[in-house]
Specification:
Elements (H helix, E strand, L loop, with lengths): L10 H19 L8 H13 L1 H6 L12 H15 L6 H10 L8 H10 L7 H30 L4 H17 L10 H17 L11 H7 L7 E6 L5 H13 L16 E5 L4 H13 L3 H6 L4 H15 L3 E4 L5 H14 L5 E5 L15 H19 L3 E6 L22 H5 L2 E6 L13 E9 L5 E8 L4 E4 L4
Helix pairs in contact: 2-4, 2-6, 2-7, 4-5, 5-6, 7-8, 11-12, 12-14, 15-16
Length: 479
């Protein structure tokens, strides 16, 4: 019988110790089984049956496949199906839908649905519960991926670099998995609606989308279309916020100052301002509507004639369905608030965000450079426009590129911090004010709206008149 050297412990002892160490490690992660939290899962579903906001917010964090318990996956699916059909969501309606599908007994019966609701301390914490459930799902997938990686290592099939790459892909796949259903559709499923849209467009007169307020821009774009992202970019002080308010007023106010109908207007819009206060936005809108100098409104020095102009303008603007938000700062806040508003105001027609470089990602994910963060924000805004099926006007700053050129004319490549803004946008409009660089310019008072990108049409340079003392731009014919 051989005696092992005291310097070389038996291999079987090392193997046993490794196995014991792995077992103890798994026990520390989740004593008694895989990572899961049934209480948190119940709280998520109970919140969704208690509060509409939870039904809107939770799916952005959590997919059905993220639940550990299959019954909870089924209930989650049913709740989202009811939401798509815009039907009430509570234990009664969810139970009726489950019964119709023959799945009520499988999930624990009607009594279990009431148990879910009763288990919720407060529906206001639904997103927090969902994030915890999501974390548990990620941990389970990490355990599964780790098991597969261990198997790869023991099998040793292929080159070492190939095995390492496969292991890295396993880990990357864990983070990206959201458990969403397939959304693939055949032409036979969608072509009918497309042909109907073509036929309807042919029978309509005038623009087909949300009016911009500018005749030549409407002629070029047919108005802002659902799902579009429109980037309006310029150097500081060139009028980005002014033209954005012009777009918002054109959407929400059904008649102009001469009480003439505006085709396609009178529809709700949202204005998310990260830079100006609500008071400043209101003053700009009143100045543009009443033709009272903005500096007079700010100082409060108005004569009788100005007050006479202001009264009817305030009435018109006060009746406009323009929803202003100055509280949202991060991307998740903006997404959640827009979804809630769209749920509360189904005919919401336009969203304006002022401006993209002020938005924060609002996540724990580390971005090495701000450019990558802006790219992620840009892509998320595009997906939000498609999801809500409405146009989003996104303001952006340009870098100093135009100031380095002799003609001072901006280009799409001047978009500050991110080339993804150009990539994700359907339309890019660049503001160029000649008199901002040359006070005695022969084009003083003119502004070029340079359509530098137009995904579904031609590009153009449209000249409008700047009436910045009234905080507005107008067609040259109205100047």
């Amino acid at each position: 019988m051989s005696v092992p050297s005291p310097m070389s412990p038996p291999e079987t002892d090392w193997a046993d110790e490794d196995q014991d160490r792995r077992s103890r490690s798994l026990e520390r992660i989740q004593p008694g089984g895989r990572p899961e939290d049934i209480d948190a899962e119940q709280a998520v579903l109970g919140s969704m049956m208690l509060a509409v906001d939870a039904v809107i917010d939770v799916p952005d964090v959590l997919g059905a496949a993220d639940y550990y318990k299959p019954a909870h996956q089924t209930i989650h699916h049913v709740i989202l199906d009811l939401r798509k059909r815009q039907e009430p969501i509570d234990p009664i309606t969810v139970g009726a839908e489950l019964r119709k599908r023959g799945e009520l007994d499988r999930v624990g019966g009607a009594s279990y649905l009431h148990t879910l609701v009763q288990s919720v301390p407060t529906a206001a914490n639904a997103t927090h519960y969902a994030e915890h459930v999501r974390e548990q799902a990620v941990l389970r997938r990490l355990v599964e991926a780790g098991t597969r990686i261990v198997a790869m290592g023991f099998a040793g099939q292929g080159e070492t670099d190939e095995i390492a790459a496969a292991a890295a892909a396993e880990i990357a796949g864990v983070v990206e998995t959201r458990g969403r259903d397939d959304d693939f559709r055949l032409p036979s499923d969608t072509l009918g609606a497309t042909l109907d849209a073509i036929e309807a467009a042919g029978t309509r007169e005038g623009i087909t989308g949300v009016p911009t307020g500018f005749t030549d821009l409407d002629a070029l774009t047919q108005g802002w279309q659902p799902g579009q992202v429109i980037i309006v970019a310029g150097r500081p002080g060139h009028g980005k916020s002014t033209v954005a308010m012009d777009f918002a007023r054109a959407c929400t106010m059904p008649r102009d100052r001469a009480k003439q109908p505006i085709e396609g207007a009178g529809r709700p819009a949202a204005f998310i301002t990260l830079e100006m206060s609500v008071d400043e936005l209101n003053m700009r809108a009143l100045s543009a509507e009443a033709l009272v100098g903005l500096h007079h409104l700010r100082s409060g020095h108005l004569d009788d004639e100005a007050w006479k102009k202001l009264a009817p303008a305030a009435k018109r603007y006060g009746e406009a369905p323009l929803y202003v938000n100055e509280a949202a700062r991060s991307l998740p806040e903006i997404q959640a608030k827009c979804r809630r508003l769209k749920h509360r105001v189904p005919d919401l027609a336009l969203i304006v965000i002022d401006y993209v470089q002020l938005i924060t990602s609002g996540t724990k994910r580390r971005h090495d450079v701000r450019e990558q963060e802006v790219s992620d924000i840009s892509r998320s805004i595009k997906l939000l426009a498609k999801e809500l099926h409405l146009p989003i006007v996104l303001l952006a700053q340009l870098n100093r590129g135009p100031e380095m050129r002799t003609d001072k004319i901006p280009a799409v490549s001047d978009l500050r911090e991110s080339g993804s803004l150009e990539q994700d946008a359907d339309i890019v409009i660049l503001l160029h004010r000649p008199d901002a660089y040359e006070a005695e310019s022969p084009r003083a008072g003119e502004v070029d709206l340079i359509v530098g990108k137009h995904r579904n049409g031609a590009t153009a340079r449209i000249t409008v008149a700047a009436q910045l003392h009234y905080s507005r731009f107008v067609d040259m014919a109205q100047a």
